[in-house]
Amino acid sequence: MWLFDCGEGTQHQFLRSDLRLSQLRRVFITHMHGDHVFGLPGLLASLGLSGSCNEGVDLYGPDPLETFLQGALSSSSTRIGYPLQIHRVRPAAEQGTLVFEDDALTVRCTPLTHRVPAYAYRVEQKPLAGRFDIERARALGIPPGPVYARLKRGETVTLEDGRVMDGTSLCGPDRPGVSVVYCTDTVFCEAAVELARGADLLIHESTFAHAEAEMAFQKQHSTSTMAAQTAAEAGVGQLVLTHLSPRYAHGNPVTPDDLLAEARAIFPETLVAKDFMTLDVKPRCNSS
């Protein structure tokens, strides 16, 4: 399980959800403002107390992240009894290289325009193997069983009757993976547009309503319309607004519904994030 940003209250939300903290493996921090990092020391400490994190946790974020955590943990005499690796993302952002890669996923980041160094992240799923043609396999007399899994992975398999089967010949073309971009905090910037280009899902901050655009520029945050403009210019599949100012809580003159309407006027495929919301992200172009 991966986590993006860790403000105060993150642990409490874990307890109220079906997620288990012991499943956490990576945390990506966008910037060092308190509403994005103040929950991290306590969360890491609780994970250590649980004794269920033998694999360790990798943290990714701005340069000051390591100093912040060292200070918080050492001054409180907190011992982290599991492997903890901290990775600075600035070099990857400046050089255009990957922040992370494994067999299934890649992560890139780019600098945003904010009052402190901030980074947006793009998580991209690598292409998936093409669909396995079970009917053709049966027609070729290949007996069902574990061999199907190997063929589905594209492996070359020698059957019991001596035939050699190339798994790729029984699979369709690779299917596209999904891509998700997490973009906060920033005022509108071209770097965010470029990182989000063609993504299936863009999660973008929307601190202010359009009427507060001047304040947004002063504080280097985004309005609902800036987020929608980013989504439209990047050609993403769906936009989710997050990081709304408390001034827009329900019952106030301007509410999240108003910010949603502003964004949808520019980019119709927009939602507003809610606590415990889940989304099934699908690639925009499917191939069989």
What is the element layout, followed by pairings?
Elements: E1 2-4, H1 10-16, E2 26-28, H2 34-37, H3 40-50, E3 57-61, H4 65-75, E4 84-88, H5 90-95, E5 100-101, E6 105-111, E7 119-125, H6 134-139, H7 146-152, E8 156-158, E9 164-166, E10 179-183, H8 190-196, E11 201-205, H9 213-219, H10 224-234, E12 238-242, H11 256-266, E13 270-272
| Structural class computed from helices and strand pairing | alpha/beta
> What helical percentage do the residues reach?
25-40%
Number of continuous helical runs: 11
Distance between the termini: 28 Å
Q: What does this molecule look like?
A:
With 288 residues, the protein is an alpha/beta fold. It has helices spanning 10-16, 34-37, 40-50, 65-75, 90-95, 134-139, 146-152, 190-196, 213-219, 224-234, 256-266, and strands spanning 2-4, 26-28, 57-61, 84-88, 100-101, 105-111, 119-125, 156-158, 164-166, 179-183, 201-205, 238-242, 270-272. It folds into 3 domains: 1-88, no CATH class; 96-128 and 175-288, Metallo-beta-lactamase, Chain A, CATH 3.60.15; 134-170, no CATH class. The chain is built from 11 helices and 13 strands. A 7-stranded mixed sheet has the order 5-6-7-10-11-12-13. It has a 4-stranded parallel sheet with strand order 1-2-3-4. A hairpin with a 7-residue loop joins β6 and β7. α8 crosses α10 (224-234) and α10 runs parallel beside α11 (256-266).
